[in-house]
Amino acid sequence: MAANGTRQLPGQLVTIERHILERQMMHPDATGDLTRVLQDVALAGKLIASHTTQAGLAEVLGTTNEINVQGEEVQKLDEISNDILFRLNDHTGRLAAMVSEEASDILHIPEKYPTGKYVLSFDPLDGSSNIDYNVSVGTIFAIHRRKTEAGPGTLEDCLQKGRDIVAAGYILYGSSTMFVYSAGNGVNGFTLDPAIGEFILSHPNIRIPTKPKYFSANLGYQRNWSDGVRRFTEWVQGEDGGPVLGLRYIGSMVADFHRTLFSGGIFYYPVNINDKNRPNGKLRLLYEVNPLSYLMEQAGGAASDGRQSPLDIQPEHLHHRTPFFVGNRELVSQAEKFIEQYG
Ligand code: AHM
Ligand code: MG
């Protein structure tokens, strides 16, 4: 296998199906259900990519209330992506329920279909406010084993800690489409070859570089951050003997996370202390923060809400929000130190 995140040599073509299946074979008692859920999510990624790459051409950019030339209601890309993920997974008998950023309640499996043993949580199209500007967006997902025995999935099945994730990943719709996932055995990245419609293993065994390069946060909100977060931000720019990191911020978390994973550094989205409507920040635990925290830990990095790993937080409701710091371990722990000392 090639070294950290380097590209596969020609002749070692591994499709995502083959890779997931080979990993399954390492677990002799596996039923294949998790493998198929992952494959269905990868298929959803291909379908969503086919829409995002057409975004400027098809009439999918407007709001839901707009009417297109055929007199049909125009659907937004995040809703299209949500439908694709739901429809590909609602009838397979592998899921007990789904959770989506797009839906306030649990997405139940329709009664006419059987339920299964996994729960799939997803943000179908994160960063969708960027679509109008042709900026990269992404799908984020996490898979848990259900807690209840059978029947329709319940809140207990959905409100599980990130620590109990069995697989998670994201699909980045950028200059190329990439599927990056972990099932607890390291992180692997696949690039979609549009000519053949297959995700090919391009970045095996991804590890965050030990020498960080960039910090990534929306500095436009700095005045609304706590003292600890502001001092940490000065530190990453060289104050008090801190490293001198460059700044990169796209505003589309999958893309910001992806760069952080490959360049080393830290991405953070802290609380806006003047926003009383969001006392815990903007990002959601179940389908944004936890899958990415899980991947970063699997890649040798760390994640925090400023005090502890988000993976240890018990979600109180489906759209539970949390502050988020993710990247190189030393940087995340330094952020925690500043927050502990200065708040
Ligand atoms: P969304 O789920 O509504 O797309 O919001 C999440 C996005 C993240 O992708 C990104 O990190 C963040 O919001 C950007 O927010 P801001 O514009 O406040 O910097
Ligand atoms: Mg989102």
With helices defined by DSSP (H or I, 4 residues minimum), what is the helix count?
8
Mean pLDDT: 91
Count of the domains: 2
Q: Largest beta sheet: what is the strand line-up?
A: 2-1-3-4-5-6-7-8
Q: So, the CATH homologous superfamily of the largest domain?
A: Fructose-1,6-Bisphosphatase, subunit A, domain 1
What does this structure look like?
The chain has helices at 16-25, 33-52, 77-89, 155-158, 227-235, 253-263, 285-298, 329-342, and strands spanning 95-100, 107-108, 118-126, 137-145, 165-173, 177-182, 188-193, 198-203, 214-216, 246-247, 265-269, 302-304, 324-327. The chain is of the alpha+beta class. An 8-stranded mixed beta sheet has the order 2-1-3-4-5-6-7-8, sandwiched between helices. The protein has a 5-stranded mixed beta sheet with strand order 10-9-11-13-12, with helices on both faces. The longest helix has 20 residues, at 33-52. It is globular. The model has no long low-confidence stretch (mean pLDDT 91). The structure holds 2,5-anhydro-1,6-di-O-phosphono-D-mannitol (AHM) and magnesium ion (MG). Residues 101, 123, 126, 288 line the site of magnesium ion (MG). 2,5-anhydro-1,6-di-O-phosphono-D-mannitol binds at residues 101, 123, 126-129, 218, 251-253, 256, 269, 282.
